[in-house]
Write a structure and sequence with these properties.
globular, about 750 residues, Aldehyde Oxidoreductase, domain 3, alpha+beta, about 25% strand, Aldehyde Oxidoreductase, domain 4
Length: about 750
């Protein structure tokens, strides 16, 4: 099938102008008549029982309209509601005890923000302080204090995978190595801190405007925690200043805004500060990873034992999903005859960790890819060659997970080898300069989160009008990745109309199809894209019928949609404009609008995902041996995202992924003391600036994914995975320091080289 011209084009995002000119409306921009401003009261200690809360001074302050504590609320727990319902362990406001510095214990709302903040400071809370644990080792030690009494040993969830003759292959192996790696917590660092406004509606209903990437999940959980019917809660779209997984849950301020709006009968707004986000916000899971791998004498992988402890902080949040996925990512990309995974999600008295771009894959890949680089050196095999020996191909099976339908992994490895000048540069090694490789594979939307549901995975509604325009309604969330553009491209390609003739209505749970879990897991292009295609093709069937009737055709004729026309492909002169065709169809249907809904649910596509991306990345770095300073000189990436629907968007995803990978590898790190986060501003929580970005060279390895719209699959999260192991290996090649614990700092390098005690 010939690909429409709009598929694969580089198309700027329609919202770019509004954002650049400051005309984009975000949650904190909203103002309503009589609106109140909220503030939260947070725990100053990491672990303790709540003995008494006195709100009298706060209530008596002029301008204060409401004060709520946990006992005022329905006290309904929420959390990872689909994958592991039993893991729901959070209350919007703590009732019995607090479990981290920042745990929410009360909320106030007042006529202005300053009064609300002052009132929050007047709420008196008396605690009985309890012993706290801050590492997974402390938390799982014999006799450790329990953070949640029902979780023995502070382990909230265990995930196991096992197949093949693991012990037998380890015994027969030519080479076995075992290593322990540690990864750290980092912030999503999205530009827009979380904000929401809850507006009471008639009949005890509520409308929530919020910065979220999962409007339907927020609707469900908010209704659940408020004790309301689901349809009594409406969640609406606004511009979103980034998410990266940090805005995919119900959060306490959303509940408090809605709860107090219903109590006061007035709109209530909560907006977090950057300090709030860094000190108390969700973060990437730190992990302690033990990995043991076995090879035969030719470098072929035989077995892998992968044991992981995830530091989940005080609550589960999306940790059960991360625990599940980490084990899956541990055996992707390469063929393992035997594999064992033992993952434990552990509570500690720190801010909760949750979903973040890659969702368990960056940590798993740092360990796995670093270990492959270490093994390559010991085996005397080039690291890229070792990967080519073991790389997956189309048709390979990930046991108990899926069969890989399309795979350009080997092509990616060969291309990045060529692009980077790998063979020559590794042979002509220069002092203080090194090349390292890291690879990735990632899901195109998760299947595991939607078992036994009454809904499909994704839905879209298409309406066409007699002026030649169309409307697309769906709940997919554009959080900066550009899906608003890509979904319109897909519809434009199907109907044969320009992009500007499509109006998009999105992220409103009252007006868009509900069958959607939001934006996470790189699911939108594949899943929502397929739903758009199905809806469009239902419309096309109706319009094709008009052409059949108009020209007295039989069913052997193929009808085309292009250049705003509907026509017989064999005889293009037999046709009419799309506008005329729609008008005729409406007359035939006695004015009934031409609207169709499309749905998508993967069928028999494995346990985790219907499709997988692949890729390889080479980092070229220089290291100053006197200061330990690392400079990334060049990045080279080759990746298989199926068919790139919007090349500009794919390139933007790559550049953003490298930026996040640089921060994760070299500088971002929370400084904690007694459970308290000390670096709560971007002045001391360092993220890469524009001048830190290296020149980047990339190539798309085009494959065709049968399950994807026009052959596409993910091109967002996977690209964030390989940077850390590639840089770590490049640093080792440059100076001899082997990093097994992120981030790679000058101090660690100098200590590793014996130049600093």
């Amino acid at each position: 099938m010939k690909k429409p011209a709009i598929i694969g084009a580089s198309i700027p995002r329609p919202d770019a102008r509004e954002k650049v000119l400051g005309r984009g409306i975000y949650a904190d921009d909203l103002k309503f008549p009589g609106m109140l401003y909220g503030a939260l009261v947070r725990s100053p200690i990491p672990h303790g029982r709540i003995k008494r809360i006195d709100t009298s001074q706060a209530r008596s302050l002029a301008g204060v309209k409401d004060v709520v504590v946990g006992e005022d609320t329905p006290q309904i727990k929420y959390g990872n509601w689909r994958l592991v319902p039993a893991s729901q362990d959070e209350l919007p406001l703590a009732v019995d005890k607090v479990r981290f510095v920042g745990d929410e214990v009360a909320a106030v709302c007042a006529v202005d923000r300053e009064t609300a903040l002052r009132a929050a400071g007047l709420v008196e809370v008396e605690y009985e302080e309890l012993p706290a644990v801050f590492t997974v080792e402390e938390a799982t030690a014999e006799g450790a204090p329990l953070i949640h009494e029902e979780s023995k040993g502070n382990v909230s969830l265990v995930r196991k995978i096992e197949y093949g003759d693991l012990e037998g292959l380890f015994k027969r192996a030519y080479y076995v190595r075992e290593d322990t790696f540690r990864t750290h917590a980092v912030s999503h660092a999205y530009l827009e801190p979380c904000s929401c406004v809850a507006v009471p509606d008639e009949g005890g209903r509520i409308t929530l405007y919020t910065s979220t990437q999962v409007p339907y999940i927020v609707q469900c959980l908010l209704a659940h925690t408020l004790g309301l019917p689901e349809n009594y809660v409406r969640v609406k779209k606004l511009f979103i200043g980034g998410g990266f997984g940090g805005k995919m849950e119900l959060r306490p301020w959303e509940f408090c805004a809605a709860f107090m709006a219903l109590r006061t009968g007035r709109p209530v707004k909560f907006t977090l500060t950057r300090e709030d986000e860094l000190a108390f916000g969700r973060r990437r899971h730190p992990m302690t990873i033990y990995s043991k791998v076995a090879f035969d004498k030719d470098g072929r992988l035989l077995a892998k034992d992968f044991q992981v402890m995830l530091d989940g902080g005080a609550y589960n949040a999306m940790g059960p999903t991360a625990t599940f996925l980490c084990g899956t990512f541990g055996n992707m990309m390469y063929n393992f005859p035997a594999y064992r995974y033992f993952g434990r999600h552990v509570y500690t008295n720190k801010p909760p960790a949750s979903a973040m771009r890659g969702f368990g894959a960056p940590q798993a890949a740092f360990a796995s890819e670093s270990q492959l680089n270490m093994a390559a050196e010991e085996l005397g095999i080039d690291p890229i060659e070792l990967r080519l020996i073991n790389a997956m191909e189309s048709g390979d099976e990930i046991p108990e997970v899926a069969t890989v339908s399309s795979c350009g992994f080997k092509e990616s490895l060969r291309k990045v080898r060529e692009m980077s000048g790998w063979d020559r540069k590794r042979a002509e090694k220069k002092p203080g300069r090194g090349l390292g490789v890291g690879c990735f594979s990632f899901i195109s939307g998760g299947v595991f989160n939607w078992f036994n549901t009454k809904f499909n995975f994704a839905a879209a509604e298409v309406t066409v009008f007699d002026d030649g325009t169309a409307q697309l309604a769906c709940m997919a969330c554009d959080i900066g990745q550009g899906c608003d553009t890509v979904l319109r491209q897909i519809l434009a390609a199907e109907l044969g109309i320009p992009l500007e003739k499509i109006r998009l209505v999105s992220m409103d749970t009252a007006t868009t199809p509900k069958a959607d879990l939001g934006t996470w897991g790189s699911r939108v292009t594949l899943m929502n894209g397929n739903a758009v295609i199905e809806a469009a093709r239902k419309i096309k069937e109706i319009l094709a019928g008009v052409v059949f009737a108009e020209y007295d055709l039989n069913q052997i004729h193929d009808i085309g949609f292009a250049e705003e026309r509907v026509f017989v492909k064999a005889k293009p002169e037999r046709g009419m404009s799309l506008a005329q065709c729609v008008a005729k169809a409406q007359r035939i249907r006695r004015g009934e609008p031409l609207t169709a809904r499309g749905f998508y649910t993967p069928r028999n596509k494995g346990l985790v995902s219907p499709a997988f991306s692949f890729g390889a990345q080479v980092a070229e770095v220089s290291v100053d041996p006197e200061t330990g300073s690392v400079k990334v000189e060049q990045m080279y990436t080759a990746h298989d995202c199926g068919v790139a629907l919007n090349k500009m968007a794919v390139e933007g995803q790559l550049e953003g992924a490298i930026h996040m990978g640089l921060g994760y590898s070299l500088m971002e790190n929370f400084v904690m003391e007694g459970g308290r986060t000390l670096n709560t501003h971007f002045l001391d929580y360092k993220i890469p600036a524009a001048q830190d970005m290296p020149p980047s060279h990339y190539a798309e390895i085009e494959t065709y994914e049968p399950e994807g719209p026009y052959g596409a699959k993910e091109a967002g999260e996977g690209l964030a995975i390989p940077t850390a192991p590639a840089i770590a290996e490049a640093v080792y090649q440059a100076c001899g320091y082997r990093c097994t614990e992120l981030p790679i700092t000058p101090e660690k390098i100098l200590k590793g080289l014996g130049k600093l005690k």
